[in-house]
From TrEMBL:
It holds the Pfam family Luciferase. This is Luciferase family protein. The lineage of its organism: Bacteria, Bacillati, Actinomycetota, Actinomycetes, Mycobacteriales. Residues 84-153 form the Luciferase domain. Residues 1-34 are annotated as: Disordered.
């Protein structure tokens, strides 16, 4: 992944077809499942982000592992969170995708380049357009792209809403 001269994100195009996903809740990835070892490597990285509390998701299935920001650090806009201070979660091994909130310009690029799709409730206007499913990584190169998106989600949730 590269960034442009002015620091903006420049995601590569994800290879192949988009995975099949459930079009309603629970919003899940149905094929092209990330290998469990890549899911665990991603989760291990996710746990190292500054100011995160690990726990269950407030909005997903019981096997989902969530990242919550410590309240004193959670200074992002309301659209940066799934529920409370939860800004991202990794679904269980049978799925391997993630839900996260991303800035709108990043959402547009992640969707157009094949890395993500809008959450069904966001498409219907019930949840912010910042909420997306990011597909689970199929290999180490994809893991790096997904990790970059997780870090962007973390910064989005931690930055002051007025920034």
């Amino acid at each position: 992944m590269t960034t442009t001269v002015d620091g903006r994100l420049d995601l590569p195009r994800r290879s192949g077809e988009r995975p099949r996903t459930r079009e309603h809740n629970p919003h899940q990835q149905l094929d092209q499942i990330a290998p469990p070892e890549l899911q665990e490597e991603l989760w291990s990285r996710m746990t190292t982000l500054d100011g995160v509390l690990l726990g269950r998701s407030g909005v997903s299935l019981p096997d989902t592992r969530a990242l919550h920001l410590r309240p004193g650090i959670a200074r992002g806009p309301r659209a940066a969170y799934l529920a409370g201070t939860e800004f991202a979660h990794l679904h269980g091994h049978g799925d391997g995708s993630l839900h996260m909130c991303l800035p709108e310009d990043v959402v547009a690029q992640a969707v157009s380049r094949g890395w993500a799709e809008a959450h069904p409730m966001a498409r219907q206007g019930y949840l912010p357009g910042t909420l997306v499913m990011v597909y689970g990584p199929r290999d180490h190169a994809e893991l790096e792209v997904v990790w970059q998106l997780v870090r962007i989600s973390h910064r989005f949730a931690a930055r002051p809403a007025t920034a």
